[in-house]
Write a structure and sequence with these properties.
Elements lengths: L2 H22 L6 H25 L6 H21 L3 H24 L9 H21 L8 H19 L1 H4 L4 H29 L9
Helix pairs in contact: 1-2, 1-8, 2-3, 3-4, 3-5, 4-5, 5-6, 6-8
Length: 213
């Protein structure tokens, strides 16, 4: 088993743990938390499907479109309810509508995009989330707020993965060793992202069971 496969399995395992522990405190009354729970669940499903198709030597590139679109929609809704400023909420609503409309139109005009990494899709679904995370940092510079660890993870991982996935069609032309190193770095960053998500839950949502006297 290669290092990349080991890192991928570790990332998937931590994602599974995070999905379970976040689901424990799931509540429709906590909109931001609820959308993040759904995000974890959808990412887990897509990751497991990707792993399965890969093991069967079946092309799984089409799953990347579900991955990026689901991530964009769910994390956008997450940030919508994290932000209190009405202008930020309006920004997110407008961006959601415009980008979804743009992607639907793009795929309707060129269905062959389903067979490759859609560079435009990667950028337009990742960049807004990175901007939201920067806004979150700016508005909470000196405040102790919930979701700060998640926000750090979103900014760090999405920025790096956007650059990686946006060059997905070019990666094939690189030296195999360089290609492998880049994917190892991405898998490592994903593990860090999942660890930050766990830290967020541990600090803000974990309820210690009182010891019996």
């Amino acid at each position: 088993m290669s290092i990349l496969e080991i890192l991928s399995y570790i990332g998937t395992f931590i994602l599974l743990i995070n999905t379970i522990i976040y689901s424990i405190s799931f509540s429709f009354k906590k909109e931001a938390y609820s959308f993040f729970c759904v995000y974890l669940l959808i990412m887990l499903i897509i990751t497991l499907l990707t792993t399965y198709y890969n093991s069967q030597k079946v092309n799984n590139l089409f799953l990347s479109h579900y991955y990026f679109l689901s991530q964009f929609i769910l994390l956008s809704l997450f940030y919508k309810y994290v932000f209190e400023n009405k202008k930020n909420k309006l920004l997110i609503n407008t961006t959601l509508i415009l980008i979804i409309y743009f992607l639907v139109l793009q795929y309707a005009m060129d269905t062959t995009l389903f067979q490759i990494f859609n560079l435009t899709e990667v950028v337009v679904t990742s960049l807004p989330l990175i901007i939201y995370s920067i806004i979150f940092f700016y508005q909470n510079l000196n405040a102790k707020v919930k979701f700060i660890y998640i926000n750090i993870g979103v900014f760090m991982y999405l920025l790096c993965s956007m650059l990686l996935f946006a060059s997905g069609n070019l990666m094939i032309e690189l030296d195999p060793l360089i290609n492998k190193i880049v994917w190892i770095v991405n898998a490592s960053l994903y593990i860090v992202f999942q660890i930050l998500i766990f830290i967020e839950w541990r600090k803000n949502y974990y309820r210690k069971i009182p010891k019996s006297s």
